[in-house]
Write a structure and sequence with these properties.
Radius of gyration: 21 Å
Helix content: 25-40%
CATH topology of the largest domain: Rossmann fold
Strand order of the largest sheet: 9-8-10-11-7-12-13
CATH architecture of the largest domain: 3-Layer(aba) Sandwich
Largest sheet: 7 strands, mixed
Oligomer: single chain
Structural class: alpha/beta
Shape: globular
Number of domains: 2
Distance between the termini: 58 Å
Order of helices and strands: HEEEHHEEEHEHEEHEHEHHEEHHHHH
CATH class of the largest domain: Alpha Beta
Strand content: 15-25%
Number of strands: 13
Length: 354
């Protein structure tokens, strides 16, 4: 048994409400609490930490690691708490990043998300994107949306994840969760297979490349409700990223396709509360109204911010507007908002309005 067990580390992380655990060479295990990294009260040698990491792995995973490959996987402890792990090499030393996963699936209300997100979950078809930086809660938002559908309607849901984070039970829906590299080789392969598996709702863990984006858009065009994520920090940047994946001669086509299937883009980030008692979510919401879809079709992405500012009646708002509201409510500090905002001038304008 390792000198420092993974159970000791994960138990400490959960007792102290940490979101992530990092194990690395020549450094005591480090924990992320309320977005900030802190060294934990553990000591050991590099060999101890290596043994702790290796204790997580199967023989097959160790063989993959020896070939120089990074490992993505999920695991459970003896209390059935679940974790997502990535094991990798850095400067020829072994390291691991472990994310604490919730046992329960929070509701949209628990997450303090805008009511329009429930409306997007009620859409019968089209594509809904949840975007934001790593650690912004995208997977949790999507899990809450899928759970809402699971309760509200009788449908077949297929998820394609890397790895599976939240485990969904069959409620009103039939739910099949497929894990990359265990159940299927790639997102794009799984999407193509899904088209023959009679789904109503498809969740794609991430739209990473041309093949996955193309397959997801096609699935939406053929009458399915598709959810996915991108690591972008705003609605306009998200559309830009998708279009830029395509060769120049096909960019008009993808703009036209998106204008036919896009239902909404939710951009979010998690920020520390002003009293440091936890974190809250700030969002930007773009809804696929006729005006918005026309701007996308015509490539006028720079006008999307104005459309969101004018679209409050249908649930739209910019990140700057939401951050200004959180500052005015006293939920976050102005400094926190300024570090998160992408358009400072717009943020200052909203602060003057509130």
């Amino acid at each position: 048994m390792p000198a420092i067990t993974i159970e000791q580390l994960t138990q400490y992380a959960r007792q102290n409400d940490c979101s992530d655990l990092h194990i690395t060479a020549r450094q005591a295990p480090t924990f992320r609490h309320l977005g900030q990294l802190k060294v934990g009260p553990f000591s050991g040698s590099e060999a101890d930490y290596r043994e702790t990491i290796l204790s997580l792995l199967t023989v097959a995973q160790k063989e993959q690691l020896e070939l120089g490959r990074d490992l993505d996987f999920s695991f459970s402890d003896v209390q059935n708490n679940r974790y997502r792990a990535n094991v990798y090499h850095a400067q020829n030393h072994l390291a691991a990043a472990i994310r604490m996963l919730r046992d329960d699936i929070p509701t949209l209300a628990d997450l303090r998300l805008p009511p329009v997100i429930q409306s997007l979950s009620d859409e019968p078809r089209g594509i809904v994107l949840v975007t934001g930086p790593t650690g912004s809660g995208k997977s949790t938002t999507l899990a809450a949306m899928i759970d809402y559908i699971n309760v509200q309607r009788a449908a077949h849901i297929i998820t394609i994840e890397d790895p599976i984070e939240y485990v969904h039970q069959h409620k009103r829906c039939l739910v099949h969760q497929r894990e990359l590299h265990r159940d299927v080789a790639s997102f794009s392969d799984a999407l193509r297979s899904a088209m023959r598996e009679d789904p109503d709702v498809i969740l794609v863990g991430e739209m990473r490349d041309y093949e996955t984006i193309s397959a997801a858009v096609t699935a939406a065009e053929t009458g399915h409700l598709v959810f996915s994520t991108l690591h972008t920090t705003g609605a306009a940047q998200t559309i830009d990223r998708i279009v830029d994946v395509y060769p120049s001669h096909s960019q008009g086509m993808i703009r036209s396709q998106l204008s036919g299937v896009l239902r909404g883009i939710i951009t979010q980030t998690l920020l520390p509360l002003a009293d440091n008692s936890g974190r809250t979510v700030a969002t930007e919401i773009l809804i696929g109204t006729d005006a918005v879809l026309a701007q996308i079709r015509e490539g006028k992405f720079h006008q999307l911010s104005s459309a969101m500012q004018a679209g409050a009646g249908v649930g739209m708002h910019t990140l700057g507007g939401d951050l200004a509201g959180l500052v005015k409510q006293g939920r976050i500090t102005r400094e926190t908002a300024e570090n998160a905002v992408t358009d400072k001038a717009e943020f200052e304008q909203y602060l003057g309005v509130y």
